[in-house]
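Reopening: Phenylalanine--tRNA ligase alpha subunit still failing for me.
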Amino acid sequence: MVQANPQNIEDLTGAALAELSALNSLEALEQWRIAYLGRRGSLTLVLRGLSGLDIEERRRIGALANQAKESLESGLEGRTREINEAALLRAAQEDRLDVTLPGRLLSEGRLHPTTQIVREICAAFVGMGFSVVEGPEVEWDHYNFEMLNIPKGHPARDMWNTLRGLWKNQRPPVRVIVPGKCYRYEATDATHEWHFYQVEGLAVDEGITFANLKGTLYEFARRLFGEERQIRFRCDYFPFVEPGVDMSIDCFACDGHREGCRICRDSGWIEIMGAGMVHPRVLAGVGYDPDKYTGFAFGMGPERIAMLKYGIDDIRHFYANDLRFLRQF
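Support: Ran it again with your exact input. Result attached.
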């Protein structure tokens, strides 16, 4: 153990800096660093010797030792920079550095798969005359639940515990598609996440019927999944529509053969969204006369659509930030 005293520290620092100034290669610098600053380096051993001093001496000499360490580290950084600059200068003088060569291409980012599918969904509806609008990410309870026919204490609040609201700032005719984030009290697994995106749609006008709903969603499914897709509607319950339906497409993974299919689970059908005719109470709640206007609404999860379209088996992949997954899109 090297004795820790001011003279030893001063002598060691001077000798180290003098040796450093004479070095001319990065390999020699690394050996110098190990000799003085490494785990068994000379200055490191001095610092270990502080443990044998009383508190006052340890504080005084410890400060000197730390100053010496900073001086050596600063000297190493400066000498490394000088050697690198000298190497570049020699390369240029020897004409080994061709400044006319094209630069290295920077890696380009890409759109997240959720962003890609949201844009595909919006483009499909824009082609049918819908406008894309965005609402607030956090909404008042009144707009989020009560105006959607979900009063206080209604059990459906447990089903629709999300922070999204209804488009209400436009007089009919209304044809809007609204992408945005959702947050729910949800146990996460391969098909459920506590945060995700949702795309909602609303059309309100005079004379809108269920046939308009079916025709619009038929066209959407075929634009996104292919012209050969078959569509199925089944009755379902949503507080803000009446009647309500879930919409499914025939399974494109097994072509209806079903047996052993992980995508449709042997049913031959894949549910892609919920929809229905807007409930008269919801229309009245936003100031539309339900005796004059009718409309339809629908909602879908883009991540689920992407999972179906690309055969993704776990929704948690979307937000795990794993480049091996993201680079596939």
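Residues 87 and 93 are 10 Å apart (CA to CA). If you still see a failure, please send the error message rather than a screenshot.
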